[in-house]
Write a structure and sequence with these properties.
There is one protein chain. With about 190 residues, the protein is mainly α. About 65% of the residues lie in helices and about 5% in strands. It has 10 helices and 2 strands, in the order ααααββαααααα. The longest helix is centred in the C-terminal third of the chain and has 27 residues, at about 115-145. It is elongated and about 70 Å long.
Length: about 190
């Protein structure tokens, strides 16, 4: 089993952090690590992937290793926190099913070694598609005056009400009709996924 030399420096960094940190905070703090310097010959996308992988691998290793120690490590891209706990928590108590999948990915060293530039391009494309879908969803919900927590039934109800109010055959505004229709079509595709 391969060991990650960043485990101890990351644990030291987390013990001294005054608040939640991000992956970027950790990478910046560990910028001089020789392991990171050894990546400098690779393309920038591969360097970013490997730095992220090494940090996430160390974090998920620590999360599992700290079980029963009186400390818990919560891990997400934007908020990583080491905290003392009164009652020992299992790692499953800290993780959703999606988190378990991520942990399994980052704890498997084959993913570090076998990921090539085509894989990284696919990962980045998948990320940006998901990000754009999220942005489109938010914009469409705002157009209809709905909250992010709205379900499909609520979308349909509000859409029907708005479309009836602005329908051109009933003297309504064509621009509003088109705007609401576009928002509805975006949401229809996204809610169907």
């Amino acid at each position: 089993m391969q060991t990650n030399p960043l485990v101890i420096p990351i644990l030291d960094f987390l013990k001294n952090a005054d608040s939640d940190v991000s992956i970027l905070d950790i990478v910046s703090a560990l910028g001089d690590e020789s392991l990171f310097r050894s990546l400098s010959e690779l393309p920038s996308e591969m360097v970013a992937f490997r730095k992220n992988f090494l940090v996430m691998n160390a974090l998920y290793f620590l999360q599992r290793d700290l079980q029963g120690s009186g400390y818990a490590l919560s891990v997400s891209a934007m908020s990583i926190q080491l905290r003392a706990v009164v009652a020992p928590l299992s790692s499953s108590g800290l993780m959703t099913q999606g988190d378990e999948v991520l942990a399994a990915y980052y704890l498997d060293w084959a993913n570090y070694h076998d990921t090539d530039m085509d894989d990284i391009d696919k990962l980045l494309n998948d990320f940006w598609q998901a990000y754009q879908s999220h942005e489109k969803r938010q914009a469409a919900l705002e157009t209809l005056g709905l909250l992010v927590t709205s379900d499909w039934d609520q979308v349909q109800q509000v859409y029907r009400r708005l479309i009836n109010q602005c329908h051109p055959d009933k003297g309504g505004c064509m621009e509003d009709f088109i705007r609401y229709r576009e928002a509805y079509e975006i949401l229809k595709r996204l809610y169907a996924k």
